[in-house]
Specification:
By secondary structure, the protein is mostly helical. 38% of the residues lie in helices and 8% in strands.
Length: 106
C-alpha cells in the first residue's frame, strides 16, 4: 500500500471498518503482486497529491509529480496497467472513483 511513509507491505485486516470488495477479473494476484513488490520502499507521491488537488480545485490541466513515487490509487492503477488493464489516463493520476467505475462498484 502507498502510505505517508511510502510504499510498504500492508494487510486488509488493518482496516476492520473498510468495505472490501472483490472484483471479478481475468487478472490474478500472480500478475500484480510481483510488480507491486518491486515498488516496496519507494516514496509517497506528495507532489502528485498536491498536483491533483490543485488541478481539481482550479480546473487546471497541469500535472506535476516526482518519478518513482506513488499515491494509493496510483499504485493500484499502475499495477492494473502492468497487467494489461487500460484505465484510460496516466495511472499516477487515476483517482479511487475511476478505479471503482472500472470495477463497476457503486
Amino acid at each position: 500500500e502507498a502510505v505517508w511513509n511510502g510504499v510498504e507491505y500492508g494487510n486488509v485486516h488493518n482496516y476492520p471498518s473498510a468495505r472490501i470488495i472483490s472484483i471479478p477479473s481475468p487478472i490474478t494476484s500472480a500478475m500484480i503482486v510481483p510488480w507491486v513488490e518491486r515498488r516496496v520502499g519507494l516514496r509517497y507521491g506528495f507532489a502528485t497529491i498536491a498536483s491533483i488537488a490543485i488541478a481539481v480545485a482550479f480546473n487546471l490541466p497541469y500535472r506535476f509529480e516526482h518519478r518513482s513515487t506513488y499515491i494509493c490509487s496510483g499504485l493500484v492503477a499502475s499495477a492494473l496497467t502492468s497487467a494489461g488493464i487500460d484505465l484510460g489516463d496516466d495511472p499516477a493520476w487515476i483517482m479511487p472513483a475511476q478505479i471503482a467505475a472500472w470495477g463497476k462498484i457503486t
